[in-house]
Amino acid sequence: MNPSQPVALIESLDYEGHGVAHVEGKTIFIDGALPYETVSYSSYRKKPSYENADTCAVLKESFLRTTPRCPHFGVCGGCSMQHVEFSAQVAIKQRVLEDSLKHIGKVSAERMLTPIAGPAWGYRHRARLSARLVEKKGGVLVGFHEKRSSYIAEMSECHILPPHISALIVPLREMIYTLSIRDRMPQIEVAVGEKLDILVFRNMDAISAADETILRRFSDTHSQPGRPLQIWLQPKGPDTCYPLYPLDAPKLTYTLRDFSVEMPYYPTEFTQVNPEINNVMVTRALRLLDPQPGERIADMFCGIGNFTLPIARSGADVHGMEGSEALVKRAVENASHNRLEHKVSYEMANLFDVTEESFAALGKFDKMLVDPPRDGAVQLLKALTDDTAPQRIVYVSCNPATLARDAGILVNTKGYTLKAAGIINMFPHTAHVESVAWFEKTGPCKSRKEMDEMEAAETAAREAAKAAKKAREAEAARKKAEEEAERAAKKEARRQHYLANQAYYDARNAAKSGEQ
């Protein structure tokens, strides 16, 4: 240990998996540190009220710590929690959800659901690998970015990818180096389906005939019996991708077993990365939603129909809404593929710009499932009124902070009770938290006047907090300036004293030199 490095006792983990400590009144977020540990650390970002730091040495180890399985852990930015024992990862994420609901949304669930967890390794069936020609590293690098860096980690394996995909990393590096456009192929999209694997190469220049031969040979070499490795090219945006070889490969699909639903999709379209957990997540969400024949149910942010079609299997009529025209088109095709088009309707809409009037125009829904991106569904939920609010809402979230904010809106202003909530460990060994929550309408919505008053009070509180923070920072800056001025004054006083008595000091120094 370097004696100049500060030491901290870790109190907890934040929502990104960093150890949290307090040193001399400042909050320190320390990468790689765990609760109950004593660590030395080195800061890489310093702010007036907090610092971000890396762990230099673990002086006292936590019982939560385990040995990372991947040799690239700590350099590769793909995982941040391999050093945490697997069951502890799940418990930590559940705590993050509970704390977010309490502190951000000012709500608590009547019941916390058993966490959904599945395979710890080889789970990631969707991935975006970067590729870059780095001659001083010996050729082309393929993998994820390094932690907090635009550089690509020098990888030879990845334990969160399926083993047969991980085994392609080194061959991919070698193959891309032989292409004429080896410095113009920055990305490889990986899609692992039930019957085939697809690699989508982002080619910024056209490939040559020789390049096509190399890519075809790579596919033939690494295809498995009954499971082809299909090569796609993407010359520009995601809508320009197309299959190169083999052209007779089966469709890319995943299956929702409990509902006998097969979902075809394109390799650049959004789907969940963890198909096993997705199966369990859909089943739990539908148990909470409890769709019944004859009910009219909304599926907001429906994507390609991951929840829409299982809801339709129950006999309910489902209206799916999504902001992407391409995804709506795919959802319509998937409804027909599963012969559920008579139970499903779809509509493209910007769900971040919903008003009370536009939501009312959709007609009355008995229940609603919401599965938004990280930004949440704040405008959609604010648009609910007593006349339009569904009796039950199931909210699937990929961000506990925005779920908590939206839960606060539903519970504190829209008359809902948070009946249950729990986490879904969709991304083991990362700090990413997916969750599901069940809300039931138990009271009236607040009036527009009450809402305006609440929003005004919240705005005033935020402004007061900002002003207080600014005042604290100004006071800290003033004290720092005073201390620096005092040090400068003392230094100047010493200099003036020396100048005034220079003859004396020169004589003393000469005398000392003579004695030596």
Summary, kept brief:
The chain is an alpha/beta fold. It is built from twelve helices and 22 strands.
What would you say this structure looks like, in words?
Its EC number is 2.1.1.190. It comes from Pseudogulbenkiania ferrooxidans 2002. The active site is at residue 398. [4Fe-4S] cluster binds at residues 70, 76, 79, 158. Residues 465-491 have a biased composition (Basic and acidic residues). With 516 residues, the chain is of the alpha/beta class. It folds into 3 domains: 1-65, Beta Barrel (OB fold (Dihydrolipoamide Acetyltransferase, E2P)); 126-192 and 196-250, Beta Barrel (OB fold (Dihydrolipoamide Acetyltransferase, E2P)), CATH 2.40.50; 254-262 and 272-449, Rossmann fold (3-Layer(aba) Sandwich), CATH 3.40.50.150. 33% of the residues lie in helices and 24% in strands. It has 12 helices and 22 strands. The protein has helices at 86-103, 163-166, 169-177, 209-222, 275-289, 308-313, 325-337, 356-360, 378-382, 400-413, 448-500, 502-515; strands at residues 7-9, 12-13, 19-23, 26-31, 38-46, 50-60, 111-112, 126-134, 139-143, 187-192, 197-202, 229-233, 242-245, 253-256, 261-264, 296-300, 317-322, 344-348, 367-370, 392-397, 416-424, 434-441. The protein has an 8-stranded mixed β-sheet with strand order 7-21-22-20-19-16-17-18, with helices on both faces. Strands 1-5-6-4-3-2 form a 6-stranded mixed β-sheet, with no helix packed on it. A hairpin with a 5-residue loop joins strand 2 and strand 3. Helix 1 (86-103) packs parallel to helix 10 (400-413). It is globular, with a radius of gyration of 29 Å. The model has no long low-confidence stretch (mean pLDDT 93).
